[in-house]
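Thread title: Can someone regenerate the structure for this chain?

I was given the following input by a collaborator and told the matching structure tokens would be attached. They weren't. Posting the sequence so someone can regenerate them.
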Amino acid sequence: MGHPEPASGVAALAKLLVALQNGHIPANLHYNSPNRDIPGLCDDRLKVVTEKTKLPNNLMAINSYGFGGTNVHAILQANSNRKENENLSRNEICLAFACARTADGCEIFLKI
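Best answer:
Regenerated them for you:
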């Protein structure tokens, strides 16, 4: 998704909500190797998600430190008691993410 500067907390929240709704943690793009200055990554105490991963439980957290001092921390839990409303259309609006390096790349992604 990139880093949307002062709106990074809202962007992280949107990404978290989609992950909770889908039950999966999305992969991190462009990750190659751990930063040697972060011991937790080097000794496997921390793991970077490199492929779509099923949520181990219904809890997720975000920490976001935006440019200009906008800081966000939240812990959310999926609603396991959610019931489908038969009065709602299957065509209801929902969040969708499209990420690419160019506008043309984004258009191609959205057509898939």
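The chain has a mean pLDDT of 81.
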